[in-house]
């Protein structure tokens, strides 16, 4: 990928200001339940933006690799919707916010399905669907599509994968309960193996911004021009990101920030300003709900400053990109 880095703009000024305001906040903790995640440098912080016109800009540590973790859930869901169809996926995983923590051991009592694909139970079910559909090729399918969305070849971090595979008893437990409830068709080990692998794919804040711009651009990567996701699948994925992407913080997020987003315990957040921008942040210290502290602060600041909330009457989105081109 060769980012088309443009001149300074309102967006860049806003990103710098958001960065400066949040940079000294050292609150929050690294995720330690996956032992390898406790080894990252806690102070890293980056904010990247990518426009649907192909412009990319970044402030801070936007080229530092980290594992995508739960952000993979949104993209895997998009792939499953496209490959298997909406009805088949809906038969296994709902689209209702759970209001529970990402790793909650709870299913929808009426349907016996996981509430949504953004919490672990739903994501493991989606990985199971992909494992069944693509067999031994499943991880390559996921990695290829994530790479196409980022506009460069991504790789998996073997050490983080092994670290989670050796310690992920709660996720294995969830998978067994899903199997027992009839939500998970695939073999438990296949579903969990794919889930742990997809979570261990390495990305940067810039990658997240470009992936977000691919979703904002209704599935076409604006840097490479390649068609990555189908329009219908993008629409459905963004809807679920909007209502469920930040776990039991999703309501607050929709209220204050107001863009579809997905966070991961690796410290990343991917946000989508529909038809305009992808936003990627990286800062590995997490709040009690498992969301990046400085990432949330940066998103709040940026969307407030630029009027990016989906229901903001001052939304300057349409003028944003042309302002940026100037
Ligand atoms: N919230 C997250 O990023 C969780 C992802 C992590 N791999 C897990 O399943 O526990």
TrEMBL record:
It is an enzyme of class 3 (hydrolase). It comes from the Bacteria. Its EC number is 3.5.1.2. Keywords: Acetylation, Hydrolase. Belongs to the glutaminase family. One of its GO terms (molecular function) is glutaminase activity. Homotetramer. This is Glutaminase. Substrate binds at residues 70, 120, 164, 171, 195, 247, 265. The gene is glsA. Gene3D superfamilies: DD-peptidase/beta-lactamase superfamily. It catalyses: L-glutamine + H2O = L-glutamate + NH4(+).
């Amino acid at each position: 990928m060769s980012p088309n880095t443009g001149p300074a703009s309102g967006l860049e000024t806003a990103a710098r200001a958001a960065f400066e305001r949040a940079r000294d906040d050292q609150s929050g903790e690294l995720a330690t339940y996956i032992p390898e995640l406790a080894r990252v440098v806690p102070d890293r912080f980056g904010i990247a933006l990518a426009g649907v016109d192909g412009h990319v800009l970044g402030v801070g540590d936007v080229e530092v690799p980290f594992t995508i973790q739960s952000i993979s859930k949104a993209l895997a869901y998009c792939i499953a919707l496209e490959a298997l169809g909406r009805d088949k996926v809906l038969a296994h995983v709902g689209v209702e916010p759970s209001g529970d923590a990402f790793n909650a051991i709870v299913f929808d009592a009426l349907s016996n399905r996981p509430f949504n694909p953004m919490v672990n139970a739903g994501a493991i079910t989606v990985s199971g669907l992909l494992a069944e559909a693509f067999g031994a090729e499943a991880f390559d399918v996921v990695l290829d599509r994530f790479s196409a969305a980022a506009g460069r070849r991504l790789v998996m971090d073997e050490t983080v994968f092994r670290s989670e595979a050796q310690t992920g008893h709660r996720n294995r437990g969830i998978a067994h309960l899903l199997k027992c409830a009839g939500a998970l068709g695939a073999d438990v080990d296949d579903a969990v193996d794919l889930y742990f692998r997809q979570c261990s794919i390495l990305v940067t804040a810039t990658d997240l911004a470009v992936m977000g711009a691919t979703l904002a651009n209704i599935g076409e990567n604006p840097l490479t021009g390649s068609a990555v996701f189908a329009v219908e699948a993008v629409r459905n994925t963004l809807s679920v990101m909007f209502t469920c992407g930040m776990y039991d913080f999703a309501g607050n997020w929709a209220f204050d920030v107001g863009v579809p987003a997905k966070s991961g315990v690796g410290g990343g957040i991917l946000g989508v300003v529909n038809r305009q921008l992808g936003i990627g942040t990286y800062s590995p210290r997490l709040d009690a709900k498992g969301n990046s502290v400085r990432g949330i602060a940066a998103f709040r600041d940026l969307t407030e400053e630029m009027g990016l909330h989906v229901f903001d009457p001052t939304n300057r989105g349409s003028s944003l990109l042309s302002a940026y081109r100037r």
